[in-house]
Design brief:
By secondary structure, the protein is an alpha/beta fold. It has six helices and four strands. It has a two-stranded parallel sheet. The two termini are about 25 Å apart.
Length: about 160
């Protein structure tokens, strides 16, 4: 939901690809901004995605909608958990937020058939291996047809 990659790239004036390890010098600049997660911009299409998912829950096509996020792997951003929950509740007040706690733990929340929409390839692959459905989010336009197919039992 939050555009972490866009904000991080802008902060360090450099671009990385999704899944690429961020150089330590760049990561140190990002974590030096202790409220980095509170100030993240929202991803394009995020409101559309959440509205679509809320409608799917209302229509009985899905059981629930939650956010599953993670804290930085090195525990160095003191306000990360607080600011991630605050960020989500500020924009999506009725969506519960769960913490991984780390990205590599997300799959532990998966029950067979659960859906994960995430921007990390590894999270999606681990989720599928745990019996769920996952989609690597880049745009709502690419996500929507996939999500529609999954919710209609065609995915």
């Amino acid at each position: 939901m939050a555009d972490w990659m866009g904000a991080a790239r802008a902060m360090v004036h450099r671009s990385w690809e999704y899944g690429e390890r961020i150089p330590d010098d760049d990561w140190n600049k990002i974590k030096a901004k202790e409220r980095f997660y509170r100030d993240l911009p929202i991803k394009d299409g995020a409101y559309d995605l959440v509205n679509y998912c809320q409608a799917a829950v209302s229509q009985g096509l899905a059981d629930r909608l939650t956010f599953l996020t993670a804290i930085p792997h090195d525990d160095t951003i003191q306000y990360a958990v607080n600011d991630k929950v605050w960020w989500a509740h500020e924009r999506f007040p009725n969506v519960p937020v769960f913490i991984g706690p780390y990205s590599f733990d997300k799959y532990k929340h998966c029950r067979p058939g659960d859906i994960l929409i995430d921007d990390r390839h590894s999270n999606c692959a681990e989720w599928r291996a745990a019996g769920g459905h996952s989609h690597e989010y880049r745009t709502w336009e690419k996500c929507r047809p996939w999500l529609e197919a999954i919710l209609k039992g065609q995915g």
